Amino acid sequence: MPDIPAATPRARVRVPLRFADGYGADAELVTFHGLTDGREHLAVVLGEPGPVPLVRLHSECLTGDVFGSARCDCGPQLREAVERIAGRGGVLLYLRQEGRGIGLYNKLDAYALQDEGLDTYAANAALGLPEDARDYTAAAQMLGALGITELDLLSNNPDKAAQLRSLGIAVRDRVPTGVFTTPHNVRYLRAKVLQTQHTLPLAELTAG
């Protein structure tokens, strides 16, 4: 198990969250000192977290989270996560890892290659980039700074749970998110199942 440096809370501020569909929740946003990657990641504390809170590691997606892009399921996952975590009590870590860590411009370059027939992982590889460049060390630091050593993880991605466990965070259970398909993201979701074993119902993700 790696010995990672400790991070500390930098500031806490209360922010009422409101979504386009009318749902709202009150949140505490927490910033941090000492994150190893130097990025401005954010913890969104919702409800009353218990001894084993519900936690989601949500990687930033400007196109999906802000502009409502139908090419991914990130926006609906973010909206769902806030409500589910607020109802139980827990934390959403909003991680500045656009495009699975390759950045916004590279992600859009990969989109252009996907339009030519490559899947999301093959497009990254064609650009000479990792299929998934995300490292969750900073997430483990943030959880430690919040006093969270055990959690239930709201995610379809087994790599998130594996990385957290390797970093000393006890993941008691991995709770799947909903399935948010559109005509534009079915191939993307199928690739996540086939390439990185995301827990999504493959039979429902037909490309037809």
Commentary on this structure:
The chain is of the alpha/beta class. The chain has a single domain (8-97, 134-204), classed as GTP cyclohydrolase II (Rossmann fold, 3-Layer(aba) Sandwich), CATH 3.40.50. It is 33% helix and 24% strand. Strands 1-2-3-5-4-6-7 form a seven-stranded mixed sheet, sandwiched between helices. The longest helix is centred in the middle third of the chain and has 15 residues, at 74-88. The radius of gyration is 17 Å and the shape is globular. The N and C termini lie far apart (45 Å).
Topology overview:
Layout: E1 8-18, E2 24-33, E3 42-46, E4 54-59, H1 62-66, H2 74-88, E5 90-95, H3 104-115, H4 120-126, H5 137-145, E6 150-154, H6 158-166, E7 170-175, H7 186-196
Parallel strand pairs: 4-5, 4-6, 6-7
Antiparallel strand pairs: 1-2, 2-3, 3-5
Attribute tags:
208 residues, alpha/beta, Rossmann fold, seven-stranded mixed β-sheet, 7 strands
Number of strands: 7
CATH fold group: Rossmann fold
- Number of contiguous helices: 7
List the strand order in the largest sheet. 1-2-3-5-4-6-7
Distance between termini? 45 Å
User: What characterizes the major β-sheet?
Assistant: 7 strands, mixed
Radius of gyration: 17 Å
Roughly how much helix do the residues carry, as a percent range? 25-40%
What would you call the shape? Answer: globular
The helix-and-strand class reads alpha/beta
Average pLDDT rating:
90
Whole-number total of structural domains: 1
The CATH class turns out to be Alpha Beta
Note poorly predicted spans: none
What is the name of the CATH architecture?
A: 3-Layer(aba) Sandwich
- Portion in strands: 15-25%
Could you spell the SSE succession in H and E letters?
Answer: EEEEHHEHHHEHEH
CATH superfamily, called what?
A: GTP cyclohydrolase II
